[in-house]
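Hello K.,

You asked for the raw outputs rather than the summary table, so here they are, unedited. I folded two proteins back to back in the same session to keep the settings identical. This is the first:
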Amino acid sequence: MDLNAKREREKEVVSLMIQLYCRKNHGCRNGLCPQCAELDAYARRRSDHCPFMETKTFCNNCKVHCYKPEMREKIRMVMRFSGPRMIFYHPILAIRHLIESKKEARKVRKNEN
């Protein structure tokens, strides 16, 4: 897959997860609240500058965590909340994520042996 396309897809998925979180937890129907908008912009900047985009699948599999601790905790809360709900709101993206996660887990296990 083209590196730019991969980067854009990752940013799209993160933004959708943040939107879902904000809608369900902060009641924002159109757009994002200021805190979630800040997190979305931050996550997009991190993706834009990720030096490991070619080799990683998802940020939680990365050896270097480039998020500031405060933002890392916020994105972790968003992922915990939105991850299981994505199957209902964005089923294709959720299934793709599951497949890619399984592939990554197999690759990691293979490299450990």
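The second followed immediately with the same parameters:
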Amino acid sequence: MYKRHFHTSNRSFFILGPRGTGKTTWLKSHYKKAVFYDLLHPSTYLKFQKNPELFRHEVLALPKNSIIVIDEVQKLPLLLDDVHHFLSERNNKKQFVLSGSSARKLKRSSSNLLGGRASHKFFYPLVYSEHQSDQWEDILRFGTLPECLNLKTVKQKIEFLEAYSLMYLREEIQQEAVVKNISAFSNFLDISSVCNAQIINMASLGRDSGVSRTTVKGYFQALEDTLIGSWLPVWKSKARVKTVIQPKFFFFDTGVVRTLSGQLRVPLQAPEKGFLLETYLLHELKAWNQIKDWGAKISFWKTHHNSEIDFIIEIRGKKIGIELKSSTHWKREFGKHLIKVKKENIIDRALGIYLGDRNLKTEFLEIYTLKNFLKCLEKDKLI
């Protein structure tokens, strides 16, 4: 079992993340003495579905300082009304840990995510310091879901990811999205995965999927609510430079996005490698932002003249620009946009990251190997 860098809380909290990231395994190992309700277990689900009041009665009978874990709470969001009731009591000493793989049903519940009485934490796939594999071709090809990383052969990894895509994404998300046109939603998943890590044109994607722009927007909201993807906003610089305004959309795992795009059985291709590397690094940045409690803002920068910087990180009053390349050799032209904005003092630090073997440095640019940069994140040396 992997040792996770997930920090718990002394108060009640939500632990949200896609299926397969290891939430249940972590909960069972960390809260061994907790009262555990697994709503994926049919008997537990049916018991409370038929008699919701039974949950309140069982919790009332527990000792004052009990910890109650509800796994996959979105299956029965009405239980949050009782959780809300307990947390509202002045003398409440019980702690609730609520896991979920979808925020969609929770947002629609009357408790509305408990009105701030429980904090929200995201459970990510494995980061480098957890899996410690620098086989970047395999990481980009198959992702970092724990079960997939544990599998030994390419065939096993492909079978796992295809089953994950079929059972979880195409069936469960279809239900979450209240999809009327299953064929159109399936087309949307195929096409949107090909657009991963790119600026999304909703109208064009709608035409290709055979649905309206409004429907496409709803589909993306479903992916976001079910924690399968997220938007990366455009950085708004104070410099007088006209930038694009559309955000990029990223799926949460490189193996999942390759499965959806139909590339899983094909060896890693050069055109997709850069987008996958961005997807993986964004995952690491977001995970460490939570683990280290940086409070950083992560975005990208692109002008109408096609000057682009992969990531802009605003952290502790500093602005850091990152240019990421899938090459094993750093070329001088890779850092030209970074150097320009560094010279103009638009950013405070300019970082290049590539798949080579050694760190490099120029007058304006610090260049890290991917492995060394990820170690810097772990050691809190981003600035």
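The chain has a mean pLDDT of 90.

Happy to rerun anything if the numbers look odd on your end.

Regards,
P.
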